[in-house]
Amino acid sequence: MVSLPDVQTSNAEIANTLPAGLVAVFVGATNGIGEAALKEFARSARSPRAYFIGRSQEAAARITAECRQLNPEGEFIFIKADVSLIRNVDVVCRELQIKEKSINILFLSCGTIRSGEDTSEGLHILPALGYYARTRFITNLLPNLKQATGLRRVVSVLAGSHEGPIDVTDFQAKKMSIIKLRGHLVSMTDMALETLAEQAPEVTFINDYPGPVKTGLGREANTFLAWFMGIVLMIIGPLIYIPIRESGERHLFFATSAKYPPRARLEAGEASSGVPLSEGVEVASGTDGKVGSGVYSIHWSGEHAGPKVVTLLAGLREQGIAQKVWHHTVGEFDRIVGSADV
Questions:
Q1: What is the pLDDT of residues 6-17, one digit of tens each?
Q2: What are the tens digits of pLDDT across the range 118-144?
Q3: Are 14 and 45 within 8 A, CB to CB?
Q4: Is residue 4 exposed (0-12), middle (13-18) or buried (19+ Cβ within 10 Å)?
Q5: How far apart are CA 84 and CA 134, in angstroms?
Q6: If DSSP codes are grouped into helix, strand and coil, which group holds residue 27?
Q7: Residues 6+ apart with CB under 8 A from 237
Q8: What is the mean pLDDT of residues 312-320?
Q9: I need a surface site. Which of 192, 297, 329, 341 has the fewest CB within 10 A?
Q10: What is the CB-side half-sphere exposure of residue 229 using CA atoms within 13 A?
Q11: What is the biggest distance separating any 2 CA atoms in the chain, rounded to whole angstroms?
């Protein structure tokens, strides 16, 4: 486990070890983990420029004011959008690409626990936000991430370390239970990130499990299981919740620490990108089980998912599931917006 003091020590070095003017994009940051991570970024970076995307203009005004108090030299720009729709994702990406040539951090925490209903584009709402929109953001903004100097990182807050089988007959998880859905989507995310890492080995990709954090997600529950889980957490939550400030600190660590280098650094034998590691903190193993291999499935503690996940993912690769996942994903994007680039 990466201790909280080690996380805080690393974050305190961001201003000294990373360049001024880092550009970050936070998708789903008007509440919960995304908001907490954005505020820690504002608190820690030198003259940063952060774009954050969400649906609430009211929340955005409050968050912008708070970030400016934390860092008067930073820029904090809100973009209002419902990113459950792929067409809206493309609009946001075009706006970002007009304003920025390079992006250092893409932080994705948009999500819902609503299930059993489709968006107007025909995507199951839960994976529309948890998988398809996120993958579209990464695909669209990958050229900008590759253009960045030094730090180039994607963090998807989902449920890394909780992988499960992928049902290739139900990629959208319209028929499976919400219990099976999580492992299915987490493994799909790993497969997609590995595919994208082949296109951009200079970029780090992280799929993390945030642990039990009190956010506003439960207010969107529309199934009995989600409602029941919300009631249970109301009772036991105070005993197990990770404080929201600590969650923000840990996610900033994921986004900036040299513990998670890109694959290109390993292949070139170069020093890791990110804030240098403090004593006792080691480079993480990737989804393939190799140290520093560029794609990471990590627990809230910052450590690798473990050998069972490595074995599971290896089996999926051997079955050609990664290619099937990517073929399906691109097919859905083409169905919704056509094959033209952003």
A1: 999 999 999 999
A2: 999 999 999 999 999 999 999 999 999
A3: yes
A4: middle
A5: 9
A6: strand
A7: 212, 214
A8: 98
A9: 341
A10: 16
A11: 52
Q: Is residue 106 a contact partner of residue 254, using CB atoms and an 8 Å limit?
A: no
**Type of residue at 62:** R
pLDDT interval class at 325 (50, 70, 90): very high
| CB < 8 Å & 24+ apart, contacts of 326-334 | 326/191, 326/192, 326/195, 328/168, 328/171, 329/132, 329/135, 329/192, 332/86, 332/123, 332/132, 333/86, 333/132, 333/136, 333/139
For the chain, percent of residues with pLDDT exceeding 90 = 84
Q: How far apart are CA 313 and CA 307, in angstroms?
A: 10
Low-confidence winner among 83-87, 110-114, 124-128, 130-134 (lowest mean pLDDT): 110-114
Enter the tokens of residue 99. Answer: 């304003």
| Best CA proximity match to 270, nearest among 176, 202, 192, 180 | 202
CB of 295 closer than 8 Å to CB of 302: no
Residue in 314, 326, 197, 192 with CA at minimum distance from that of residue 267: 197
pLDDT of residue 181: 95
The letter for the amino acid at 333 is F
Is the pTM higher than 0.85? The answer reads yes
pLDDT at 116 (0 to 100): 87
**HSE of 54 in the Cβ direction (CA atoms, 13 Å)?**
27
Pairing of strands 49-54, 295-298: unpaired
CA distance 279 to 288: 25
